[in-house]
Amino acid sequence: MATRTCCSGIMEVGKKGVVPMIVVVTGIIEEYADAGRTIDALVVYLTLLVSNVAPQCLHLQFVIKALAADPDPKFLEVAKECILDDGKGMAAPMLRPTLPCFKAFALQEKAEEGKQFREEMEAKGFVVDKMDVIEVLKGTTGTVVKSIHNILFGKESLAPSIFSMLDYSRKLRS
Q: How far apart are CA 7 and CA 167, in angstroms?
């Protein structure tokens, strides 16, 4: 019921030509994503798109987070479409909003599909920087990190990444 009320409010504001309170809409999408309410997050996001309001990177990030976290593989496909289609507004697909998708590929053991998706993104200008990956994956451990690393960089060792991170931290201290 709350989703229906929220969406009708967004549609009403969109019809009047007034830009909705982006902060509120972003908060609603984020709360639905955090609560695991994938459908509701997607409905609010799609309502935002229908209302002729250009989504911001943060909206896309929260929707992708919800879609990728859902165990239903169909939602991972929707997340990919969101990145490739709705992400046109971004200069190039960025790592932070797209990482939950790669994490979902790792958790669902779909590394090859993840690599194909990475290649599609690279064709659109996506560039992966190892230091960005290390920064984004802080606090994540184990086989998920190895799998994400393999999807993004191929089968090379993690050791060079760790050594480059140590060099980077030394440079920051100097």
A: 49
Contact 131, 166 (CB under 8 A): no
Tokens of 18: 């007034």
Q: What is the C-alpha separation between 55 and 160, in angstroms, rounded?
A: 37
CA 153 to each of CA 44, 114, 115: distance values in angstroms, whole numbers, following the listed order: 34, 11, 9
Inter-helix orientation angle 73-85/111-123, to 10°: 10
Q: For residues 28 and 15, what is the distance between their CA atoms, to the nearest angstrom?
A: 20
Q: Alpha helix locations (H) across 16-94?
A: 22-34, 38-50, 57-69, 73-85
Query: Exposed, middle or buried, 61 (CB in 10 Å: 0-12/13-18/19+)?
Result: buried
For residues 157-163, give the mean pLDDT: 47
Integer Cα distance of 42 and 32 in angstroms: 9
Conformation bin of residue 37: beta by default, left when phi > 0, alpha when psi is -120 to 50:
beta
Tell me the average pLDDT of the chain.
75
What predicted TM-score, i.e. pTM, was given to this entire model? 0.69
